[in-house]
Known about the structure:
The structure holds four protein chains of four kinds.
Chain B: H1 2-32, H2 39-61, H3 66-92, H4 101-123, E1 139-141, E2 150-152, H5 154-176, H6 178-188, H7 190-195, H8 200-226, H9 234-246, H10 251-271, H11 281-295
Antiparallel strand pairs in B: 1-2
Chain C: E1 9-20, E2 23-34, E3 38-42, H1 49-56, E4 64-69, E5 72-74, H2 79-85, E6 87-89, H3 102-108, H4 118-123, H5 127-145, H6 161-173, E7 179-183, H7 191-207, E8 211-216, H8 219-225, E9 228-233, E10 236-241, H9 243-247, H10 250-258
Helix pairs in contact in C: 3-6
Chain D: H1 13-17, H2 23-43, H3 46-72, H4 80-97, H5 103-122, H6 130-150, E1 163-164, E2 168-170, E3 173-175, H7 178-200, H8 203-213, H9 215-220, H10 225-252, E4 254-255, H11 262-277, H12 280-289, H13 293-296
Antiparallel strand pairs in D: 1-4, 2-3
Amino acid sequence: MAESAVSASHGGALTESLTFPQCLLAHARMRPEAPAMREKYLGIWQTTTWSALSTMVLQMAAGLAARGLKRGDHIALIGDNRPRLYASMIAAQCLGAIPVPMYQDAVAAEMVYVFRDASIRIAVVENQEQTDKVLEIREQCPQLTDIIYDDDRGLRNYQQSGIESIDALLEAGALYEQAHPGKVRQAIDEGGFHDDCAMFYTSGTTGNPKGVVHTHASLILPSRTVSQQEGLGPQDEVLAYLPMAWIGQNIFSYAQWLINGFTINMPESQETVMIDMREVGPTYYFAPPRVLEALLTTVTIRMEDASPGKRSLFKHYMALAKRIGGRILDGDPTVSFSERLQYQLGDWLIYGPLRNALGMSRIKLAYTAGEAIGPDLFSFYRSLGINLKQLYGSTETAVWVCVQPDGHVRADTVGKPVPGVEVRIRDNGEIVVRSPGLLREYYKNPQATAEVRDAEGWYHTGDAGYFDQEGHLRIIDRAKDVGQLANGAMFAPKYIENKLKFFPFIKEAVAFGQGKSEVCCFVNIDFEACGNWAERRNLPYAGYNDLAAKAEVYDLIQDCVNQTNADLALDPKLADSQISRFLILHKELDPDDDELTRTRKVRRGFIAQKYEVLLEAMFSGKDSQYVETQVKFEDGRTGAVSATLRIANAKRQQGLAKAA
Amino acid sequence: MGPFLETLIGGLMTGMLYSLVALGFVLIFKASGVFNFAQGAMVLFAALAMARFAEWIPALLGIEHKVLVNLMAFILAMGVMIMLAWVVERFVLGKLVNQEGVTLLMATLGITYFMDGFGQTVFGSDIYKIDVGLPKEPMFLLEDVFQGGILVNQEELSAAIIAAALVALLAAFFQYTGTGRALRAVADDHQAAQSIGIPLERIWVIVWSVAGFVALVAGIIWGSKLGVQFSLSQVALKALPVVILGGLTSVPGAIVGGLIIGVGEKLSEVYIGPMLGGGIEIWFAYALALLFLLVRPQGLYGEKIIDRV
Amino acid sequence: MSRRSIGEVMLDVKNISLSFGGVKALTDISFNVREHEIRAIIGPNGAGKSSMLNCINGVYTPQQGSITFRGKTFDHMNSREVAEMGIARTFQNLALFKGMNVIDNIMSGRNLKMKTNIFQQALRIGAAEREEQAHREVVERIIDFLEIQAWRKTPVARLPYGLQKRVDLGRALAMEPQVLLLDEPMAGMNIEEKQDMCRFVLDVNDQFGTTIVLIEHDMGVVMDISDRVVVLDYGKKIGDGTPDEVRSNEEVISAYLGTSH
Amino acid sequence: MLYRENGQFKTSYQADQQIFPIAQDRYLILALIAAAAIVVPFIASEYVFRALLIPFLILSLAALGLNILVGYCGQISLGTGGFMAVGAYAAYNLLVRIEGMPAVVAILLGGVFAMAFGVVFGIPSLRIKGLYLAVATLAAQFFCDWAFLRIKWLTNDSASGSVSVPELMVFGWNVDTPIDKYLFCLGFVVIFALLAKNLVRGHTGREWMAIRDMDVAAAVIGIRPVYAKLTAFAVSSFIVGVAGALWGFVHLGSWEPAAFNITRSFDLLFMVIIGGLGSIMGSFFRRGLYCDRAHRA
């Protein structure tokens, strides 16, 4: 009985130590006709079964072999989530080659480094756009022999050598298979659980990106543990919509996919993600806070346009949900029956339709991570009855370090260590991790590897944090960023920035104060939110920098800053690092200008030198400053924007520590 | 020969009345793009008002002088029609500016139902008489040309003359007065007219009042002929083919169309009717108009339609 | 990127004159279109460009002149025949079917190719259903090609102008035309939209070898993408040739300096 | 309210193109029909059937027919009453003149006659547009009023065109009680609604809408206005004719031309336009019975 129960919960999920290709074959054997992936193409969800997938993969692997791909070679994957790109990833692993997924929005110049560093042999790309980029850098990358594209639109007339479509590759594969029957299978069997299986480049906040090498084991083991803990299984549906180059995407819709044998669904295009999400209704979902933010914004905007009746109904029930929704989800017994009744009613009237509109009706488990998430934002989703949880991890740890256990979910912690993962806090407050999921090494960079992993195999996350009384881990900031003010008081810029970013009107914030007597910060307003705010007050504005310069907006932001200071004042450690002055930047911080990483983390150092004039002005107490900056446009051209920025003062609270 | 001329003249005379009603349509359509189905109801309504006032005034004020009574009744009735025009503009058309033709048409249908109901509740639904002293006894023309001469109904004749006069008046009003010019401006392009400061609302009230006036006169004439009763509202339906025949937007079209239909109807009734068991004039007018439209889809004087793409 | 090879003359317009009640719209216009080429008709607004297209696909009937398509000569065209011969077109001021969504608009372009009778459709079993599905797939390929997947079920009236233009193009493409007449495909668009539209036009011409006749009133975009250009002004032809020839043509220059745009 | 599209993804065009792609809608409409067929007969009183439900059903059938013409093909018609009359009288004649003519067949053939009549009076629509057409269609109305009053042959020589039908036998089922009549009409409405819906979502329907929305563009993509408009008139007046026959046979039993006079035409046009403008009644029709364009969006 117990056994049958288990197999019912996650029957078909694999527990043996298999490599990814072996997992694929296992699923194809056990459940050949079950759907492995769906792609919305030509208006309907085209399904690929496990058996079909494995056939494709084997043939593709043969094709790659025919193109001379050998064990240990590196192969680049560039493009959106597409079935045949996923297939090519497994195919490469069949041969023991190492796939290196890359961000499709990276410009050619950024790619060169990775191509050279990883000495890429073959690039499998999505479409013409990517092909053109790779062609651009080809002569700089001597090892690159083949470019293989999925969608042939506009590529038919490309004469250059070494370019072919995946279809051509598959044909080549068929021939190769005839010539060397069983070669691929053999390669798969030879593949070892602890062999390297993938490489992810971390967009390091400073210096060149580093290639993080993971083995089948390191990607599979922790993912499997969590899958079992969370009861994931073949019945689950996942929407694969985040960049393949990001480790999270690889864990949630590749590693766990091949472990549990659930179905991954690929959206039609970037614009249709919302629509497709609504159709698919995933049961297991990951979204970084910024995506959840965007969703919430669309909802609130839509509600503002709704009829007064609707709006008040919405307000009423959202208030109710805020009060008890989260507690009901946590199984809190103290919620009264009548409250539950009201909540049920609300579920019919508001929450249900809302979940449907968000495409979250069927969600059993949802994670968010990457950056700290705003408490309001977080509780909004939980109050709707969506089991959204936080987790903590990084590329180097194959994500899984801490996960919030069901029933113990807090907005300001990242939960408890995953079984099999050891977490310690060093005296300087840095978090160190020992886990089967740790990276094997930084590619061709032993020194960097040594820096992050000490003799006993502890990985130094570089994050500062502490365990609270319930044993939940709290993250403060990057350890190295946790600095000191002139008076020696603790200064955690990221922590402050996040607090600021929790306000809907603030998109980005950068705090400075290391070694200074006070804290100052740059602010990027959220154009959409502030824009709406302005329109509701019918306050005319020409564009971003015009809006950003408005006195009203400054006041608006000032309130936010003052509130943040109030919060900080409550925490004796941080009371001193309240913000004394701030300014609103005239341009949005942008990855294309290297001010943000591709994952939209602020590059504080870079920004500090780029806007040196502004910093000096702020700390020297000026109340305005002229600045001129270079910007890069979408089409690659560069231009200059200039403005005279106002610098405003913020209200500092009397810290409790001092009061006491 | 005699009977033919008789029918012809008869036809021309009824035709004149059609023209009158048709003019009501054209005015409103030109000015507000509304195809006013309520025109017939307006005729009935006006006639009812006229008839009843003519009864009430003596009863209430004890005035007996017939001309005076009719005059007062006429003025009162006209007042009612103006009120009506204002109400229509205020509560119906004002709300439906720039709607599709069909919607507006439906709106006027609504107005029709309203006026039929309202009119009959206020003024009663029996058959009433209107006597404005139109000469009743027949007269004979050209007795020396054919023996027996041509019998002409004096009532119809005078009616026709009044109608003709009125038509001429309106045509002139439309062509030469400032309001008329404003009307045409509005007809050509609402926005433009508005932008040069022509007050749409006022224009519409005026137009509907004029239409009301036309309806009143028509109502009196038909009423004193057939008696004021529900069937009066059917008059409008007879004027419809006139309008499309003449072209929805053309004043001369309405006039000529009216005459054509009037004559065609009478002649057909006399010469074709018997073969088909009579009573054909209710649809013959339409058939006539339809055939004509097949040749000239935009009607006699309507503007030619060119598809721009 | 290698462009397809230009072939024989397929469409030949001879001495077309058209007037509306005395107003001359076109006077003795002649030009020809070669297979697979991109042929532009440019001219200031009101130069009679749209009227020219309207003559070609039978919306207007010219008073004089003849049009020869693939060896068949007509003194006036019949819209239906034109469509059957494989000449499709888009419209300057969007002529989409406002009451329908994107799919249905493009589907309507498949009309000529749909054969089931009214009774089969009423029952919607067998043939009718299969037909609908088959054509739906074609339509979806077009939607994919024009990158409007996100709006496939939106009523076209709710789409922004730029997208409506794409749907209009889609409807024309659905006819699998040999010649595609584009009436100011880039009018009223911002730069990105124009670039997109150019890309689509080139891709159509490139992938399906469709011959393209397009009208524009501003020279800029057109000159880059078209093989040969006809210039009209006040219903008269004032220039014809490659973009460079036309650019250096005195009359054209004066005509353009004369008009502001 | 309990609307949940999440997880209802379509893996085939057939599934995507069905009338109600969302399961909840499907169940709802089926439930409605079931309720109408099973529950209503038990709760409604005889009076309700006679005075409300039966006329309601028949008129909505007529409205459905008219909507094809007005709503989908954009041709205004004020002759609906006339078309109904043709349907009714044709069916009547077939029934009384032809020995052993089954009622249902008579009713349907009545529709066929109305169709022919409709096509003839639709011909002007090829030249005439909009309001001109609206008025032109009145010709049909008045012609009918006159014909059934004056041409004795059409009414089997009955005085002033008033006729009555013997009780209604449908393949052995004697449709005489109000419930029978109600179910009989319901059957017609449901079936015709389905067929009509299929038509308007097929390419004929698209032709009609194309003509309605932008006739020049329609012509340019090879749609023949003649064909589109006349098919619209044909289908529309067929349904209207059937409705007319039902009105006479089932609702009235015995009637005279006045039963189909111009007011009927106006009322029906009202129903359709109001429906178009989205009143409760109208929207119910549009959602439940007509093809709801908004729904496809």
